[in-house]
Amino acid sequence: MEAKREIIFDKLVYSCVFEKHRGNEEFIPEHFLGFQLSGETHAFHADGSTIIPENTIVLVRKNQLIRTIKYPAKSGKYQFLSITLDKETLQQYALENKIAIDKKYAGKQKLFFEPDDFLQNYFSSLAPYINKTKEATPRLADLKIREAIELLLQSNPDFKQILFDFSEPFKMNLEEFMNQNYMFNVSVSSFAKLTGRSLSGFKRDFTKTFDKTPKKWLLAKRLDEAYYLIKHKKQKPADFYLDLGFENLAHFYASFKEKFGLTTSQI
């Protein structure tokens, strides 16, 4: 059965699968709070990987790239519920509650934790919307998002340094960032935003740093890594081509032959 991804109301998304499912790369533009109802999510990001087990809540920070693999539980079902904590709502909440921060969050980049009774009951309260036994009006949807913010701050007051940091992304070290994230198959404009640059600024800085256009550098970098995996790790292209950002095997094989003058079986 195919993966099911359903928008319950404006900022609440329910995902359900019945067999192992590899998701596409995703650019996370807003913070979101998620709950692993059943099964397990393996998330891959620039800092490595994170396993989100069943009955775990995760607070994912905005402006990052993530790839996921979804594993159903022994019962045969994977379920994940996420609610977006968008900038507009957070700014309004901060204004109404006179919240200001004077420092950035110093904890780990990826956050996941066992839910307390309040957060557990919060996600349980969303079940009627998932099951379509209750419909959320815009006002009620807004209240549920605000409730999520309240409960997060109650569980850890330091989360305010994440949620209410409205500063624009500063210019990141381009060489360091791209070497950590080249395997994500996303648009150049997404890479630009993540590094704190306009698209034109990103392309200009990229050419200065790497002496190549982003498209040519990304292809060469991915092919070099593929060569290493084949020759030194004895891996097969079918096992890793998606993880290196290639969309299909035919494109990978053709690009590999063009760059190295050899087929993968000749390495």
TrEMBL record:
Residues 172-267 form the HTH araC/xylS-type domain. Residues 121-180 form the Cyclic nucleotide-binding domain. GO terms for molecular function: DNA-binding transcription factor activity; sequence-specific DNA binding. It comes from the Bacteria. Keywords: DNA-binding, Transcription, Transcription regulation. PANTHER family: ARAC-FAMILY TRANSCRIPTIONAL REGULATOR, HTH-TYPE TRANSCRIPTIONAL REGULATOR EXSA. This is AraC-type DNA-binding protein. It comes from Epilithonimonas hungarica.
